[in-house]
Amino acid sequence: MLREIIRALFPHYGTFTKIETSPAKPGEFDESWVARLEDALFLNHAEVAEFAETISSEKDRFAFLTRSVLEWVYRYAQGMDSPYEIVRSSRFVVMAPEGLAKELAVDCESIARQVDQFLLNVAAEPRPYPVAILAFRDEVSYYNYTAAFHDEETTEVALSGGTFFGGDRNHHIVLNSNFSAREIHLNPTLAHELSHCAMAHLELPAWIDEGITQNIEEAITGVPYEEVLTLRERPKLNREAWTPETIQYLWTGGAFFIPELQEYAYYFSRVLINLIKCELCQQPQEFADFVLQVDPADAGDAVFRAIFGQGLGVLIEEVLGGNAEDWQPKPESWNQDLSDPCN
Predict the structure, then answer these.
(1) Model pTM?
(2) pLDDT tens across 91-111, in order?
(3) 284-288 long-range CB contacts below 8 Å, 24 or more apart?
(4) Which CATH number is correct for 11-201, 3.20.20.220, 3.30.470.20, 3.30.2010.30, 3.20.20.390?
């Protein structure tokens, strides 16, 4: 049902031609930049882009940007304990265990183009240099890498199949522990993280970002989630998690990083996005207008009121009952970084 709804909303979905890939290895490169990439955990894209602006030729500028990504991935792979191979496609530089990189690059290109079609005028234009995809051999390697990005105070980390790092650290990490089950594991993860990438230019509240990516993930891969158009079939699951106090963690995005709330947050965000898109919006452009204007500072409440004439609390009331005002985002109680409410 969800797949048919999204296909109806996004009619330009189609099939794509064969994707070309090629083995990748750095060639000649500015030694001053090589020194900056030694043992680098991530490529600082802001720094690279700033330097690229000093290059007058567009062709040379693109070559420099591409080479920076390729050089960093190559050097990172060289430092791994077990062998990895690197393949470049038009939009990606893929690091994966030997024999798997080309297949993964083809999947990345195909899924990324489908994501662009589903998002239409919400998605960003593909950037002029490739995104790096790091597909780790096992969970230990994956979590060792991602752990380096957590605060020192972090003692418990929620499980994940993949992570998109935006901003200056703009690349993907894809868990590579089950390539033999790619249709039920890896491809949905790719669709999810590539959707995040396509919307990275928007500063979306996490509940909107995650709700959209999960709907696209299911529509593209055909891997079914439970019925998510409403919560009426599974009220107990969410009533156990959400109170007027804990709902603030959903609005700020903190719930997605709290292990005991994470499952509820992902599920609930899917439901809320579907309620907006399928029950409130009269046409696809209305949903796009909402997404393009939301402000994380209030979880999107002001824009929601302007477009639909009511606050976000009515969505929660529709699903869980209670008083809409109790479910409203309360920015005055949040920390400045929007990661957690002050309670």
Answers:
(1) 0.79
(2) 999 999 888 889 889 989 999
(3) 284/9, 284/10, 284/120, 287/9, 288/120, 288/121, 288/122
(4) 3.30.2010.30
